Amino acid sequence: MDKPKVVLGVSGGIAAYKACELLRRLSESGHDVRVVPTASALHFVGAATWSALSGNPVSTEVWDDVHEVPHVRIGQHADLVVVAPATADILAKAAHGLADDLLTNTLLTARCPVLFAPAMHTEMWEHPATQENVATLRRRGAIVIEPAVGRLTGVDTGKGRLPDPAEIFEVCRRVLARGVTEPDLEGRHVVVSAGGTREPLDPVRFLGNRSSGKQGYALARTAAARGARVTLIAANTGMPDPAGVDVVQVGTAVQLREAVLKAAPDADAVVMAAAVADFRPATYAAGKIKKRDGQEPEPIVLVRNPDILAEISTDRARPGQVVVGFAAETDDVLANGRKKLERKGCDLLVVNEVGERKTFGSEENEAVVLGADGTETPVPYGPKEALAETVWDLVARRLGSNV
Ligand code: CTP
């Protein structure tokens, strides 16, 4: 089988050096990568580096190697074009259909999915000109992932950083796996909760659970790759932020509830993949609880946490909003799942069987997605991303019928 053909467009920003890492990941995972830098990108990383890492010739202009590489062919034959970093300038050129170098020509001839990973100063990103260009590109079906927040060139911090190359690579993989050019969650805002809450007893101890957050992160990544704006509410996951996703870190169930309720009014879908503690200690000891010689420990008194899924399902923040829950069951999986779906009032419930080695922390999952309309969608044992894709298929179908 031919290797998938990826065009890596690199435009002239300091983050160009990070594209070397993206290129390495793409090449090492069996993609045929053709790097098309702009002339200004070469001020940051030279052609020799791109050529050595990709094993392919590198040119910036349509006039180079004309006999071998007609400027239209690179775009026509690509399975994916990813521009990382994408400067304000390349976004403007792409939005307006300019074609004054090899990369802009490639963008016009490509009929495959096109992904932009912007990186620039916060002011440039927020400027109405850039925002309108991004909106134009998204409307036409390109995927433009949101820049990350953090340290920018020099002393500045803010939104505008290139997301972690490993995370851009994950988005590329998802887009290639789907192989369609229509990002079906384009223009949608989705909220995903992930991880497990921790309910503190004292400054050093907590009651927690074994949820790793991997399923929630897979949901966030796949939604971003399908064009959605994603808010990921992460509880104690310790994982790097997925590319193009706004991450809100929380610790306890009460904090998770606050973050979900804040994000939900603007969301088309809310997916509660987090393992939320049903109970929390009734009291919090300000100092560490000490053992005392000859004394039995005090029992821990628990109180109920709010049921966030039930709350957002019953009291929809927005008409037509799709709410998805997860259920971990050990026995009578489907029957218990059906009862839980009704009790919680959500539209979809992903039911998986848990046990010692099943689900928690693993890369794989097996589940049945129950619909409030009586549907049952089995998802065979496989990567958590495959389950995530099925969840978004079902969500997109419901959102489609809500418009
Ligand atoms: N959930 C929630 N708030 C809680 C507890 C759970 O929003 N306080 C959400 C989870 O994010 C998940 C779903 O509810 O999407 C199912 O949680 P689960 O713990 O399996 O269900 P419970 O209602 O706790 O039922 P049971 O204890 O009977 O298993």
Automatic annotation (TrEMBL):
Pathway: Cofactor biosynthesis; coenzyme A biosynthesis; CoA from (R)-pantothenate: step 2/5; Cofactor biosynthesis; coenzyme A biosynthesis; CoA from (R)-pantothenate: step 3/5
Binding positions (CTP): 278, 288, 306-309, 326, 340, 344
Single GO biological process annotation from the record: coenzyme A biosynthetic process
Region (Phosphopantothenoylcysteine decarboxylase): 1-189
Annotated GO MF terms: FMN binding; metal ion binding; phosphopantothenate--cysteine ligase activity; phosphopantothenoylcysteine decarboxylase activity
EC number: 4.1.1.36, 6.3.2.5
Record bears the keyword Metal-binding: yes
A GO cellular component annotation in the UniProt record: phosphopantothenoylcysteine decarboxylase complex
Region (Phosphopantothenate--cysteine ligase): 190-403
Cofactor: Mg(2+); FMN
Every Flavoprotein domain range: 5-173
Family, per entry: In the N-terminal section; belongs to the HFCD (homo-oligomeric flavin containing Cys decarboxylase) superfamily.
Protein name according to UniProt: Coenzyme A biosynthesis bifunctional protein CoaBC
Species of provenance: Streptomyces caeruleatus
